[in-house]
Write a structure and sequence with these properties.
The chain has 627 residues and is of the alpha+beta class. The protein has four domains: 58 residues, Ubiquitin-like (UB roll) (Roll); 172 residues, 2-Layer Sandwich (Threonyl-tRNA Synthetase, Chain A, domain 2); 228 residues, BirA Bifunctional Protein, domain 2, CATH 3.30.930.10; 85 residues, Anticodon-binding domain (Rossmann fold, 3-Layer(aba) Sandwich). It is built from 19 helices and 33 strands. The strands form eight sheets. The chain has an eight-stranded mixed sheet. The protein is globular. It starts with a strand and ends in a 6-residue tail after the last helix. It comes from Candidatus Azoamicus ciliaticola. This is Threonine--tRNA ligase. It catalyses: tRNA(Thr) + L-threonine + ATP = L-threonyl-tRNA(Thr) + AMP + diphosphate + H(+). Homodimer.
């Protein structure tokens, strides 16, 4: 028997499929169901039922259907590609957040303009109502079917000899896939192709470059339009476009993964850095600086090379192996070992660095300020004993909140990342560290979730922000490390005169300063928090006869605000439009009315609100420079 979600019980022959039983149970609503949960696992139409199974039917308009819809849409994209471009070789097409992509090789040069033609073909195929069929074959049969596709053959070669391989077919198209899929391509109604880019086969830059087409698919027209509108808004707020337009920074093809700062952009960077410096001083940190290029021995001994060598820049200089540092912690331990009094009386010992770090990121993963090869990590380490741990973690969370609040954010999400599943050594130490972090969270009454993504040297707390597009950005972290100090022989003398190994708290506030600037730009659609804005006010005058009054206002407010004068003979409408495009938050307009009444007209460009105000009241109302 099988138990259905509404507790109906039916008896059937052993070989009955879900498709047959679905027809019996729901004769009038057959076409609304696309798949099942069979004993807790999602299965495709046609999957053979087992005796004593529990079924939950999935409707096409259910949120649970999204991954199935997107999976089938990836196959529909691939089916369309081979119909249009006969020479292509398909590789893989997984489901990703909010959509899917498919990677493929083609000798034909493709661009964004080709997506419209491909999408049209996809819609054309859905009208033909091809049934999607799952076929199970052995490895030999799969190799014969895909004998002309080296990417599929490489996937098949990595499957064990006696495995059953599932293949999904629709008309003359076949693809390797675990599934599940929709029962018919006609269910695919609400999708859009959104991007084409390059990607290395298996994300390995030693392999050949493939095309990658991204798409999105939804269960309703409303949700598709909602997501497409969000994408369009994000394009308008893209920090890479705004950074260039506002003359903040730029990127160049000859130097991928590094940023070139212009004056205003560098002022934003240094303003953030200076604020954090002052905050760190209040929390009793010492700022340090360590070399960019170090001997590899330090990172070998700390364990980082064994774990991260593929993401590190290794330099052979006159037969000496050096690394461009990917993180600061081994260097900070070296400082602790060689320069500071190592007594329990000096603990907790807090050091911080705005460290220039290098990571050998794949070119396909680079994304403006959000993902760089060379970035600044606002890194810090606290050397302490068991006794200090809870208070130090609590103090760091207070520090974190101060910084986030300054820039218009609150902690939106907190994750306690516990021991990774593959770690089986030193379990007592791991559980002890996890308990300490859990106690802190409970003391502060912060909601949190749990994952198994701890670092190789200890558990951590991860702090995330949410922007206006509801995107989550993990920025801050604090990690409890019982192991690295021991690996690098860091010691202190306890109150009884015995040598002890300190516990290290690794912590970062923003993570990467560059990335945080990217988040700020996109969150404000180019408008930055006022404490970072290069120009707070711009003075616009309607006629040269008011210039003396304009300059008088400028001299009064220049010491309190970042202010400039728009010198130009353009029409007022043009001047206002120019200032809006340059994301200057406020315009002060001076004309005859303002001149005669000794007032100003203030325009808020973010809200389009305009008001006339006396200079005295204006100075009282606006007080944000240096906030």
């Amino acid at each position: 028997m099988i138990t259905v979600i509404d507790n109906n019980i039916i008896f059937f022959k052993k070989k009955n499929s879900f498709k047959e039983e679905k027809r019996k149970l729901f004769k009038n609503t057959f076409n609304f169901f696309i798949s099942i949960y069979l004993n807790g696992k999602i299965k495709t139409v046609g999957y053979e039922l087992v005796i004593n199974a529990t079924l939950i039917f999935i409707k096409i308009n259910s949120s649970k259907a999204l991954s199935i819809i997107r999976h089938s849409c990836a196959h529909l994209l691939a089916h369309s590609l081979i119909n249009i471009y006969k020479d292509i070789k398909l590789s893989v097409g997984p489901v990703i957040k909010n959509g899917f992509y498919y990677d493929f090789f083609s000798n034909v040069k493709l661009s964004f303009s080709d997506l419209k033609k491909i999408e049209k073909k996809m819609f054309g195929l859905t009208k033909k109502q091809f049934e999607i069929i799952r076929v199970n074959v052995n490895k030999d049969a799969a190799n014969i079917l895909f004998k002309h596709n080296k990417y599929k053959k490489e996937i098949i070669d990595n499957i064990s000899e006696n495995s059953i391989i599932s293949i999904y077919e629709q008309d003359d198209f076949s693809d390797l896939c675990r599934g599940p899929h929709l029962p018919n391509v006609s269910f695919l109604k609400f999708f859009k192709l959104i991007k084409i880019s390059g990607a290395y086969w298996k994300n390995n830059n030693k392999n050949e470059m493939l095309y990658r087409i991204y798409g999105t698919a939804w269960e309703s027209k409303r949700n598709l339009h909602k997501y497409v509108n969000k994408i369009n808004n994000l394009k308008e707020c893209d920090h890479r476009v705004l950074g260039k337009h506002l003359n903040l920074f730029d990127f160049y093809k000859h130097s991928p993964g590094v940023v070139f700062w212009n004056k205003n952009g560098w002022n934003i960077y240094t303003s953030i850095k200076e604020f954090i410096k002052k905050t760190l001083e209040k929390f009793n940190y010492f700022e340090v600086n360590t070399p960019v290029l170090t001997g590899s021995f330090l990172f070998k001994k700390s364990g980082h090379i064994d774990k991260f060598i593929d993401n590190m820049f290794i330099c052979n200089i006159k037969n000496n192996i050096n690394v461009l540092k990917p993180m600061n912690c081994p260097c900070h331990i070296e400082l602790f070992n060689n320069f500071y009094k190592k007594s329990y009386k000096n603990l907790p010992f807090r050091i911080a660095e705005f460290g220039m770090c290098f990571r050998n990121e794949l070119s396909g993963s680079l994304h403006g300020l959000m993902r760089l090869k060379n970035f600044t990590q606002d890194d810090g380490h606290i050397f302490c004993s068991d006794y200090h741990l809870e208070n130090e973690i609590i103090n760091f969370i207070h520090l974190l909140k101060n910084v986030y609040y300054k820039f218009g954010f609150n902690i939106f999400k907190l994750v306690l990342s516990k021991k990774p599943i593959d770690i089986s050594d030193n379990l007592d130490i791991w559980y002890k560290a996890e308990k300490i972090l859990e106690n802190v969270i409970k003391k502060l009454k912060i909601n949190y979730s749990v994952s198994n993504d701890g670092a190789f040297y200890g558990p951590k707390l991860e702090f995330s922000l949410r922007d206006k597009f509801n995107r989550i950005w993990q920025c801050g972290t604090i990690q409890v490390d019982f192991f690295t100090a021991k690996n690098l022989n860091a010691k202190y003398v306890d109150h009884k005169g015995f040598l002890q190994t300190p516990i290290i708290l690794h912590r970062a506030i923003l993570g990467s300063i560059e990335r945080f600037i990217g988040i700020l730009i996109e969150n404000g659609s180019g408008y930055l928090p006022l404490c970072l804005t290069p120009i707070h006010f711009i003075l616009i005058y309607i006629s040269n006869k008011y210039l003396f009054y304009v300059k008088n206002i400028y001299n009064i407010i220049k010491n309190k605000y970042n202010v400039t004068i728009y010198f130009g003979n353009e029409r007022l409408e043009y001047k206002i439009k120019h200032c809006i495009l340059k994301k200057i938050p406020y315009i002060i307009i001076i004309g005859n009315k303002e001149y005669t009444s000794k007032t100003i007209t203030l325009r808020d460009n973010k809200t389009n609100f305009v008001k006339n105000i006396s200079l005295k009241n204006f100075l009282k109302e606006f007080n944000f420079k240096g906030d």
